[in-house]
């Protein structure tokens, strides 16, 4: 297995982890546990933030000449970008659900 396919496999596993966390948050929201959903969202937010910081550090390392792992840095950057996009999709779904709840008449 070459380095690029190894990086893609790692990216796939990380994205599956983010997707599972999003599904857990949705399940907590369906169960009516706002506190559990907020905790899960916070964990997912921290994970995405950590991925962004890691990607930035790897890119800076390549730019300074301390590392020659350009492929790994690029894959890390793409992983962070995709995780952030997925986080924004989850956020948009939650905000849409909140808007729907506010529109309900009791």
UniProtKB/TrEMBL annotation:
Could you tell me where this protein is found in the cell?
Answer: Bacterial flagellum basal body
Tagged with keyword Cell inner membrane: no
Q: Enumerate the InterPro entries for this protein.
A: FliE
Keyword vocabulary terms for this entry: Bacterial flagellum, Cell projection, Cilium, Flagellum
Q: Where is the signal peptide?
A: none
Q: What protein family does this chain belong to?
A: Belongs to the FliE family.
- For this entry, the protein name equals Flagellar hook-basal body complex protein FliE
